[in-house]
Amino acid sequence: MVKRRTSSVPCRVYKYGALPPEPRDVVDEQMWLAHRYYNDLIEVEHARRQAFVWARDRVSAEELREVSKQIEEERKDVCNARVRDPEWGPGLRGTCGLYSGTYLLIEAQAEQARKKKGAPPRFRRWTGEGAIGIQCAKPIPVSELMDGTNRYASIDTSPRYHIRTGRPIKNGALLTCVVGPGGTKASFSMKLHRPLPEDGLVRWIKILRRRTAETSVAGVREKWEVHITVESSTFIRPERKGPVAAIDLCWSKGRVGHLLGEDGYEEPILPHTAIVKKLRYADSVRSIRDGYLNVAKEWAAINIDPRVRSWHRMHAKGLMRKIREWREEGHDVAVLEAWRHRDTHLYQIEHNVRAKAKRRLQNDYRVWARRVVDRYPVIILEDLDLSELATENSGGKWGNHQRFVYAPSRLRDALANAGAQIVKVPAAYTSALCHCCGKEVGGTYHRPRCEECDWVGDRRENAVRNILADGMEALGRAPKREEAAQRP
Ligand SMILES: [Zn+2]
Questions:
Q1: Which of 58, 102, 256, 454 has the most CB atoms within 10 Å of its CB?
Q2: Which tens digit of pLDDT belongs to each residue from 94-123?
Q3: How far is CA 337 from CA 135, 295, 307, 310, in A?
């Protein structure tokens, strides 16, 4: 439930289960409109992209820059509804019928989808799931929320009773808030099992409706949730004092990181060989499955449909679906049925082995983090976008395991959970520059060599020394390196 922002005052999201709102229709309508608004925004984005592609093929580089700038501005204007864009309908915000909290929420979601690299954002299908936001133009103090003096939202904690049994509901509370235009209010019966911090400021209230596959209560296929984002200075962790260590998160030949303490202690971070062995085993099961799949495909190509041979990217699932069709058409599919049976069995083995390795890894990281943080309460890390890093060069023998074992975010989370104070330093040039003299290193990728001072060594060892030095500077425990270098 913990979520931090990058601002100075940390935020946390408090999540509560709720009953369907009272009255329902306003909330239902807002959720449907929110869904439509999202798709409207995506449609605008699609049209913009098309315009860009059209322009790209016809104009010079300079004109193109102009076009893309123009498109960017137009897009912003549509979102902000500052102009009435004749092409895309009069300002979307003005006509979407949504309350400001919700349209801000939806715009943020659309913006996130737009920024994603690769294919254009996709339209959402209406599944009955949705979210609306409650306007908090100005943050609402928790005290105001609880005593009911705020005009947008209030939580009533007076005793509530079960509708049928008449028994009091433990931690029962009633959230009443403005959900629609014209100040329409709705109430949500919820369980306030975790009290909000008294000195906090409520930045956001979100109401979510989700579909559930299982029906825990007969006939109920939806789940309502209230998410309250609270900002409070009490969430700031006390600063840890003590020895400092730097960790270079990396992925090279099974090593997931390299640790260097300020006292000179050094160790590579390696996942246990048993885990790597398990992963290799899972891989071998996978290749056996692939082999059987090819045999089955070949059989089907000869006996049923020659086109099967060209299904290069055909997953086992596709073939399984096809078997059913063929059986209905009257083909003899006994051989394929046998394959299907075996493949399901092998899949289960593979899946179990991977899951076991994952659990083991998680535990190892937890134990490791505990040990490290006991010795070094302050940890310096590079400020990396780990999700992007994990998808880099994912090929080859180790590449297959990369996303799985590497998961540097897991290592980082383990350290944070063990109570480390994490200091982030910019990631640029940490492995490109020599830690002794600050000049660019030459040599090979894994074994860099500094032409200036003749240092030769390991790439990660060089990087971790740079990270440690940057971190010590950032903490004010070491003089600036440029200054240090100037000293005689
Ligand atoms: Zn050097």
A1: 102
A2: 666 777 778 888 888 888 888 777 778 888
A3: 57, 13, 19, 21
Q: Helix, strand, or coil here: 248?
A: strand
Two tokens at 118? 């690769």
Ligand 1 mean position to 455 CA, how many Å? 6
CA–CA separation, 39 vs 34, rounded Å?
9
Distance 460 CA to ligand 1 centre (A): 15
433 CA to centre of ligand 1 in angstroms: 8
What are the structure tokens assigned to 454, written together?
């003749």
pLDDT for res 292: 92
Distance 442 CA to ligand 1 centre (A): 10
Going from the Cα of 90 to the center of ligand 1, the distance in angstroms, rounded, reads 61
Distance CA 136, CA 134 (A): 6
> Which residues are CB-neighbours of 441 under 8 A, at least 6 positions away?
432, 433, 434, 448, 449, 450, 455, 462
Of 5-14, 19-28, 98-107, 365-374, least confident by mean pLDDT is 5-14
Q: What CA–CA distance (Å, rounded) separates 283 from 70? A: 50
Number of H helices, E strands in the chain: 13, 15
Nearest Cα to 27, choosing from 106, 173, 124, 128?
Answer: 128
Residue with tokens 């894994």: 446
DSSP letter, residue 306: G
What is the mean predicted confidence (pLDDT) over 18-44? 88
Return the bridge partners of 259, or none.
247, 267
130-139: b (≥16 Cβ within 10 Å) or e: bbbbbbbeee
Rounded average pLDDT over 231-259: 82
Question: From ligand 1's centre to the CA of 382, what distance in Å?
Answer: 21
Q: Flag whether pLDDT at 233 surpasses 90.
A: no
Gap from CA of 434 to ligand 1 centroid (Å): 5
Give φ, ψ of 385 to 5 degrees. -85, 100
Distance 452 CA to ligand 1 centre (A): 5
* d(CA 270, ligand 1 centre) in Å: 28
Phi, psi of 186 (to 5 degrees): -140, 155
Which value, to the nearest 10 degrees, does the dihedral of the CA atoms of residues 437, 438, 441, 445 take? 120
What is the DSSP secondary-structure string of 37-104? HHHHHHHHHHHHHHHHHHHHTTS-HHHHHHHHHHHHHHHHHHHHT-S--STT-S-HHHHS---HHHHH
Whether the per-residue pLDDT at 372 is higher than 90: the answer is: yes
Pick the closest to residue 410 from 365, 360, 373 (CA basis).
Answer: 365
